[in-house]
Amino acid sequence: MMTEKVILDCDCSFDIPGCDVDDGLTIMYLLGAPTIDLVGVTLSQGNSDWAGVLGATRRLKDRLHLPFNYYFAPDTGEQPQLAASDFLVQTVNAHPHEITLLGTGGLTNIKRALVIDPLFLNKVKRVVLMGGNCFPLVINGHQVGELNFKIDPAAAQLIFASGVPLIIMNGHMTMEALFSRDFSQRLAAKLQATLPADRYQYFATAINDWMKLQEHDLDLPGFCNWDITTAVYLEHPEYFTSEQVYLASDQSAIAEAGRITLVDHSSRMITMPAHIKDFAAFNDLVYRRLLAGLQQD
User: Fold this and answer.
1) Is the Cβ–Cβ distance between 227 and 22 less than 8 Å?
2) For the Inosine/uridine-preferring nucleoside hydrolase domain, which residue ranges apply (predicted)?
3) 267-276 tens-digit pLDDT
4) Tens of pLDDT along 218-232?
């Protein structure tokens, strides 16, 4: 079976109170996907600061016994053996045109990789990002902030301006990826019967705490599983609509609200799906991949 080499650049905050769990779920999904080779995870800021993301990722890996390697930046206050940006450059140069980058955080590591190797993105197979919006993002009357592209607007702008094949899963589309309470209960029932009790409790507590917060703050029957759409797209792009759009050369609005500026025509055409086309198939796949990813050993 052919596999796709993937690096996930993310701001995992899985068990941090008041922070999103979707980066952690994306790691689990990628580990459970038989057609994906998760080469490594690079850690950025976003949902939490650099140190918070590093701590959450360590706990996620250790508490759930997940088999992945992660790389961080000195911004955490710790000195890494191999910095995230160096890992990106070394890995892409070792496998030119074979690595797909998933970006679900602040993207600073990719910006720093371009400083080390200005041709870095020329050697990447493609980039799939979760982030941005084209107009204010409102859920049940509540305006929702953007916490990826606007964290490091210069990084996002560099990726936009490069010639790398680019897919953006924006906030409007990914809000359709509802991790509902019914879905959570179905998953929990299976995991409780198959995982050791300490692992199940760690996973269930983080999910339930975030779900309760989103139910209260956004009147949702669950939470938006934003980031996992990037992983699903790798396996099944047909689950999404396939709109192609043109990016404006001036993307300064990213700094204000993560706003992506589109034009009728430009030299930079990208893919930006507008909707999940087959939500039943999407949810079934997420269910199966999460189960597989959580039962690696």
Assistant:
1) yes
2) 6-265
3) 999 999 999 9
4) 999 999 999 999 999
Please state which of the four CATH numbers 3.30.565.10, 2.40.50.140, 3.40.50.2300, 3.90.245.10 is assigned to the domain occupying 4-295.
Answer: 3.90.245.10
Summarised one tens digit per residue, pLDDT across range 181-194 is 999 999 999 999 99
Would you give the distance in Å from CA 84 to the centre of its chain? 16
SS3 letters across the chain: CCCEEEEEEECCCCCCCCCCCHHHHHHHHHHHCCCEEEEEEEECCCCCCHHHHHHHHHHHHHHHCCCCCEECCHHHCCCCCCCHHHHHHHHHHHCCCCEEEEECCCCHHHHHHHHHCCCHHHHCCEEEEECCECCCCEECCEECCCCCHHHCHHHHHHHHHCCCCEEEECHHHHCCCEEEHHHHHHHHHHHHHHCCHHHHHHHHHHHHHHHHHHHHHHCCCEEECCCHHHHHHHHCHHHECCCEEEECCCCCCHHHHCECCEECCCCCEEECCCCECCHHHHHHHHHHHHHHHHCCC
Could you report the average pLDDT of every consecutive run of 10 residues in the chain (297 residues)?
Answer: 93 96 98 98 95 98 98 96 98 98 98 98 98 95 92 97 97 97 96 96 98 96 97 98 97 95 97 97 98 88
Q: What per-residue confidence (pLDDT) applies to 215?
A: 95
